[in-house]
Amino acid sequence: MSKIHVAGLTKSFGSNEVLKGLDVDVAEGEVVCVIGPSGSGKSTFLRCLNKLEDITGGKVVVDGFDLTDPKVDLDKVRQHIGMVFQHFNLFPHMSVLENIMLAPVELKKLSRPQARNKALELLERVGLASKADARPAQLSGGQKQRVAIARALAMSPDIMLFDEATSALDPEMVGEVLQVIRDLAAEGMTMVVVTHEMGFAREVSDRVIFMADGLIVEEGSPESVFGAPRQPRTRDFLAKVL
Ligand code: ADP
Ligand code: MG
């Protein structure tokens, strides 16, 4: 059974069809990286996976939840899916610890002491145990993004989605965030990672999807997509970014 099953997914904004029929299956524990030019629909695809966008057509089943069923419990679905964006959106008036504890406590998944223990454990895991009481403003961009990842993990998701999580960071901070994602991959987290970091995609992914103009142009192992791309569009794109 696929952890993520997408069949014939289309998405339009008005008359602009930005996803033109995507078929994607992601197995449990699989790491899929999505690459492609700006405007090709990568973010929209990711947002359809937790229904941050209405789905125009096709089928999307995530963790057994049919997102195209109007009766689907979205709150429940989203508790199974962690998402990390380019911009971290931490609450500035709360400590790092409180930011991470918020969702588990509000959604009553955990008591405050449990949420606190879990948050401290997660901060340890992302290398920020010493920053529990800091405010987001006191952190570097890389540290803030690691807190954002810890915050997503606090809900114990089965699936993590990353949308260019390192694009807004200064170059010297990219590595520390990629390391956290790499660790998650090694622990067997199912992940869909939209990234501009081609070296990282090549190293961490089980499968690479190249998107252009709302379509999957090519997909395969990192060795095949990066090492021997079959489609001219993939070759053009890689020639520009590598
Ligand atoms: P990518 O992440 O690959 O850069 P996006 O998914 O962000 O691509 O965008 C794909 C296309 O969808 C673009 O043409 C973009 O302008 C359009 N688009 C994305 N979000 C919206 C929106 N909320 N309203 C209208 N058009 C949108
Ligand atoms: Mg995008």
Helices and strands in order:
Blueprint: E1 4-13, E2 16-26, E3 31-35, H1 42-48, E4 57-62, E5 65-66, H2 74-79, E6 81-84, H3 96-106, H4 112-125, H5 141-153, E7 159-163, H6 171-186, E8 190-194, H7 198-204, E9 207-212, E10 215-220, H8 222-227, H9 232-241
Parallel strand pairs: 3-8, 3-9, 6-7, 7-8
Antiparallel strand pairs: 1-2, 1-4, 4-5, 9-10
Give your account of this protein's structure:
Keywords: ATP-binding, Nucleotide-binding, Transport. Residues 4-238 form the ABC transporter domain. This is Peptide ABC transporter ATP-binding protein. It comes from Arthrobacter mangrovi. This protein is of the alpha/beta class. 37% of the residues lie in helices and 25% in strands. The chain is built from nine helices and ten strands. It has helices at 42-48, 74-79, 96-106, 112-125, 141-153, 171-186, 198-204, 222-227, 232-241; strands at 4-13, 16-26, 31-35, 57-62, 65-66, 81-84, 159-163, 190-194, 207-212, 215-220. Strands 6-7-8-3-9-10 form a six-stranded mixed beta sheet, with helices on both faces. Helix 3 (96-106) runs parallel beside helix 5 (141-153), helix 4 packs across helix 5 and helix 5 (141-153) packs parallel to helix 6. The longest helix is centred in the last third of the chain and has 16 residues, at 171-186. The mean pLDDT is 97. Residues 42-43, 163-164 line the site of magnesium ion (MG). Magnesium ion binds at residues 42-43, 163-164.
**SS summary, helix count:** 9
Q: N-to-C SSE series?
A: EEEHEEHEHHHEHEHEEHH
Using only C-alpha atoms, the radius of gyration works out to 18 Å
List cofactors, ions and other ligands: adenosine-5'-diphosphate, magnesium ion
InterPro entries: AAA+_ATPase, ABC_ATPase_HisP-typ, ABC_transporter-like_ATP-bd, ABC_transporter-like_CS, MetN_ABC_transporter-like, P-loop_NTPase
Keywords: ATP-binding, Nucleotide-binding, Transport
GO molecular function: ATP binding
Protein name: Peptide ABC transporter ATP-binding protein
